[in-house]
Amino acid sequence: MKNSAEYKFKLKELPKEQRPREKLIKYGPDVLKNGELMAVILNTGYRGETVLELSHRIIKEYGSKAIVQEKNVGRLIENLGIPLVKACQIIACFELGRRFFKEEPGRFPTIRSP
Known about the structure:
This protein is mostly helical. The protein contains 6 helices and no strands. It starts with 19 loop residues before the first helix and ends in a 12-residue tail after the last helix.
């Protein structure tokens, strides 16, 4: 159990170079760890967890491969104890990635002139 008197840094209290969004802007997505990328998606923490703590917990408890494959909002909420909005953000993000990855070249015509 965590000590309730333990102080937790909020992202805005961290130096800018340590904040996930600012790191993404300055260095690109390749330098961010999975938990930092998830923190950019989620934006805020929940129930006493900072967004970084929440992001790392989600990846640790669910697994990075399993979370990518999950399509059921209710299961995410139940298994992780996260709110509806955050579950929707996670699922929508990975679904969009799946759809972009599956797109076949030539599926849509390329317009080469006006």
